[in-house]
Amino acid sequence: MTRRTDQLKLGAFLANSGHHVAAWRHPLAQADASLDFEHFKAIARSAERGRFDALFVADVVALWGHHLDALSRTARGEHFEPLTLMAALAAVTEHIGLIATATTSYNEPYHIARKFASLDHLSKGRAAWNLVTSVVSDEAWNFGRESHIEHADRYQRAEEFHDVVKGLWDSWDDDAFPRDKASGQYFDPDKLHTLNHRGQHFAVRGPLNVARPPQGHPVLVQAGASEPGKALAARVAEVIFASHHELPAAQAFYQDIKQRAAALGRDPDHIKILPGVTPFIGETREQAQALFDEFQALIDPVLGLRLLADTLGEDIDLSGHDLDGPLPETPAGQRGSRRDQVLEVARRDNLSIRQLYLRLAGGNPVIGTPEDIADTFEAWFQGRACDGFNVFFPYFPGSIDTFVDQVIPLLQARGLFRREYEGRTLRENLGLPRPANRFSAREEARA
Ligand SMILES: Cc1cc2nc3c(=O)[nH]c(=O)nc-3n(C[C@H](O)[C@H](O)[C@H](O)COP(=O)(O)O)c2cc1C
């Protein structure tokens, strides 16, 4: 395999007290971080000091589940609305991209087009939309529905939703606003385009009441893993969050997506695939392992069993079983490929119930010295398993500074990561082209 000469793309996942599910209980983490803007500001500035490409914030438009016995043991019961948080962070940062999550299942395209166009203007071209179709079914109850929209329907809606949003972002030519005091013309009506969309799910006339975003279109991020999820990603995503823990699976996903995109006429280099990774860093491997073990020991079994049930099937109750015994047979229910993967791991590694939920809760940890972390990043990048990483910092505020001070310089010394931001916008830093306006491109073709 030829050695890659491009560089890693890095995202920093913003998560209240940290990404580890029990982080808020650890002495190194700030427990009351969820709605503390100063906390997020400090993290954002650390990420920018480390020359990260972007900050990322996830979202659920409901409580993160309705099993209060488990939820009440996490810091997930409260969180900022992502676009509001990112708008505030735009004002206290200069270079870093701002990836906010918004669902296509319980929103309207006009609202989403408008909000992300606004964020792109506010931040001078640093906005990105993580398009999700909602993983938490409880969201349905907040939007007049008895039950969640079915998976296939969610993706059909998402496809159309996406197309409408992009159409609205093209409402104005880039030079539609002469704002000419002498002639009195503020905008040029010939450079305004009305979408007039009528589809299966949406009827949206347009145009948008915000000028074309500085990036043309804010960057499109997606994390689908199912067949319709991957189809949407291959067609429209510019950044993909992946969740593979093992190199061969990550390589297969990488190749699959890049090939699908090429078959659709896209340049595969214009899709950046970023798996999530949680670095636990120590001066020695033993120290790093001890740190990881401390976090894992803080996971309450009630929470651990809930994480397991959420993966195997919501109604499964394992509380009567010996936690240090084997996993009993459980009915398949509605859970799909993720359930099968977890059962396979339990069987292969002969895991007890406790070991299995700890494995799930631990996420995708990379445990070791700064050199070990840099080696893993390099191996995955050069092995074409990814184009970079979405870094899930285990605890905040400390773990991002450790990473920036100890791992980033190693990546830079190996030529794997930038020393300075190359561009002005997120698109430029990611090496993504600025899309032409579909309406002006059509007019130019006719002229
Ligand atoms: C890093 C990462 C972040 C995600 N963030 C969210 C989120 O904030 N909200 C959400 O509803 N889903 C989120 N998802 C779920 C994905 O959008 C997607 O639904 C999931 O990967 C399953 O794929 P599928 O939808 O194709 O079945 C995330 C997934 C990953 C890997």
From TrEMBL:
InterPro entries given for it? Diverse_substr_monoxygenases (IPR051260), Luciferase-like_dom (IPR011251), Luciferase-like_sf (IPR036661), NTA_MOA (IPR016215)
Tree of life domain: Bacteria
Keywords assigned by UniProt? Answer: Flavoprotein, FMN, Monooxygenase, Oxidoreductase
Q: Does the keyword Amino-acid biosynthesis apply?
A: no
Which intervals hold domain Luciferase-like? 21-382
Q: Could you tell me which NCBIfam families the record lists for this protein? A: FMN_nitrolo
Give the record's family classification: Belongs to the NtaA/SnaA/DszA monooxygenase family.
- Protein name per UniProt: Nitrilotriacetate monooxygenase component A
